[in-house]
């Protein structure tokens, strides 16, 4: 984790955030932070900055947060790919977020098994979890958007030409 990604719900008050769960465990056990240490933090869809550890236990970390830096500029990229099998989708989503792609379209095609569309991984919370993992690795705060296109031919004939107007396309 190169960035501790915060949400509005983590803040106790202005400038003070409390973390529990996996993030607190990572800070205490992997980073081995101590009171007074400075960590790189960011607020989802907002700014980057620093968090100074003001208190910690084995399950909770309290940070004094200062956010002042802009996140990296998004890549001028729209990634369209056939829906991969769920195991691969996890890694793909995280990698796309880490690399800075901000617009993903998952498309049905002849070779996509119908059962993939029923995967619990396609639920909003599951996708967000893997997007956040990627953002933490890429030191970014801007969540990518993911769209689903379950009908190949209508997408290619009706929507794709509009998406490609005034841009370059690579296949």
Q: Quick gist of this model?
A:
The chain has 171 residues and is of the alpha/beta class. 30% of the residues lie in helices and 30% in strands.
Pick out its properties.
171 residues; alpha/beta; six-stranded mixed beta sheet; three-stranded parallel beta sheet
Number of helices: 4
Through-space gap between termini? 32 Å
Rounded to an integer in angstroms, the radius of gyration calculated over CA atoms is 19 Å
* Share of helix, binned: 25-40%
Largest sheet, described in full? Answer: 6 strands, mixed
Q: Strand-residue fraction?
A: 25-35%
Inertia-based shape: elongated
Number of DSSP E strands: 9
Low-confidence stretches: none
Structure description:
This protein is α/β, with parallel strands linked by helices and 171 residues long. It has helices at 21-30, 86-99, 124-138, 152-164; strands spanning 4-6, 11-13, 16-20, 38-43, 48-56, 60-69, 78-82, 103-107, 145-149. A six-stranded mixed beta sheet has the order 1-4-5-6-3-2. It has a three-stranded parallel beta sheet with strand order 7-8-9, with no helix packed on it. α2 packs across α3. The two termini are 32 Å apart. The model has no long low-confidence stretch (mean pLDDT 94).
Question: Could you give the topology of this structure?
Answer:
Blueprint: E1 4-6, E2 11-13, E3 16-20, H1 21-30, E4 38-43, E5 48-56, E6 60-69, E7 78-82, H2 86-99, E8 103-107, H3 124-138, E9 145-149, H4 152-164
């Amino acid at each position: 984790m190169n960035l501790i990604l915060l949400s509005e719900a983590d803040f106790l008050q202005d400038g003070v955030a409390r973390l529990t769960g996996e993030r607190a465990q990572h800070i205490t056990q992997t980073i081995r932070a101590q009171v007074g240490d400075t960590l790189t933090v960011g607020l989802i869809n907002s700014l980057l900055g620093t968090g100074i550890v003001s208190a910690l236990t084995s399950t909770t970390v309290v940070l004094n947060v200062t956010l002042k830096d802009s996140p990296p500029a998004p890549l001028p990229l729209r990634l369209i790919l056939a829906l991969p099998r769920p195991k691969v989708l996890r890694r793909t989503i995280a990698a796309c977020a880490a690399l800075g792609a901000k617009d993903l379209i998952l498309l049905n095609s002849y070779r996509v098994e119908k059962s993939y569309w029923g995967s619990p991984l396609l639920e909003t919370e599951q996708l967000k979890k893997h997007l956040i993992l990627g953002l933490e690795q890429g030191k970014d705060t801007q969540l990518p958007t993911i769209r689903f296109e379950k009908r190949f031919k209508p997408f290619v004939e009706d929507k794709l030409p509009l998406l490609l107007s005034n841009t370059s396309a690579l296949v």
